[in-house]
Amino acid sequence: MPLLTSPFAELDLIRQPEQNNDPLQAFDAADEYLLSHLAAQAPQTTCRVLILNDSFGALAASLAGHVQVTSSGDSHLAHLALEKNLARNGKPYDAVPFIPSSEHWQGPFDRVLIRVPKTLALLEEQLIRLQGKLAPGAEVIAGAMIKHLPRAAGDLMEQYIGPVQASLAQKKARLLIATVGERPVATSPYPTRYRLDSPALELVNHANVFCREGLDIGTRAFLPHLPRNLGSARVADLGCGNGVLAIASAQVNPDAHYTLVDESYMAVQSARENWRAALGDRAADIHADDGLAGQQKQSLDVVLCNPPFHQQQVVGDFLAWRMFQQAREALVVGGALYIVGNRHLGYHSKLSRLFRGVEQVAATPKFVVLKARK
User: Fold this and answer.
1) Extents of the domains making up the chain
2) The domains spanning 4-179 and 192-373 adopt the same CATH topology
3) How many separate helices (H) and strands (E) can be counted in the chain?
4) For the domain bounded by 192-373, which CATH number is listed?
5) Could you tell me whether strands 300-305 and 310-311 are parallel, antiparallel, or unpaired per DSSP bridges?
6) How far is CA 311 from CA 15, 78, 374, in A?
7) Principal place where this protein is found (predicted)?
8) Over the stretch 225-235, which tens digit does the pLDDT of each residue have?
């Protein structure tokens, strides 16, 4: 794989999660453009730089040791990638402080480098949080490949930061450069809330949560078919989002024990708040992780999953396949994975390669609910 070469460093970087012969690299021309732009300003070692949404640590690892850098984002996988890539390139794995998006930063910052996220609500929340955190003369620079750079990103920067200038294109990447201007103090529109009738729930959704404005149709198809009569089973909601599957399951399985896990810090934050609102002080383990990578083998009886089919802008079933493998490892013999998926994704045949029995629990014109037994 090619090295990321910038005025700050030459780095050998890997993506997270790792896969053999990965055809994709852990950086792109937008990372290179952001680094060259910053280098042209000859920042002092005392310059405080905040990096947002650095998917695999390319920006933070490049700047470590050159400026006072802090990284923040909503991806636990990005945090793992940063640690691995620092260590891979001879730097302490904790050389760059990482602040999950569920927590707040301590300014002031002289420069902010942003990789424009797929979810513009996350960008909006981050720009609002920058209010009062920018030093005099600060600059906020957002970068993206042009095909992933919506006009609305510049509009949001103009609304919350100040005047924006778009750079010339460079290797199909572009920067949006905002200088701090007088702006009224904004109140964040996040988290959002919506209500369900069955089960009767009000769900909180922080800015980067999937289907933030309403229940996604896959979960809607899944909810009526969640397993009942689980007794004291150990149940995991894998890729829990706002926690709705686990909460609905827990309501009809009062003695079961629940683990909710997601790689999004805002999803975990939402799930914790929703669990508490619906189930009070009932115990549950709700945390950010790389799926079930940290789960003990053969420690679960049931796994519930509405798997994703993309990582950032990359579409594919790699993450779903990996979640199915993790579920198989974590389940006891005789345990079961329940999933919902689009019919066209062919999950039945994929699960049949891992599990001894796969049955269709329910179907709609678009979705199937499957049960795979170990």
Assistant:
1) 4-179, 192-373
2) yes
3) 10, 20
4) 3.40.50.150
5) unpaired
6) 11, 11, 27
7) cytoplasm
8) 999 999 999 99
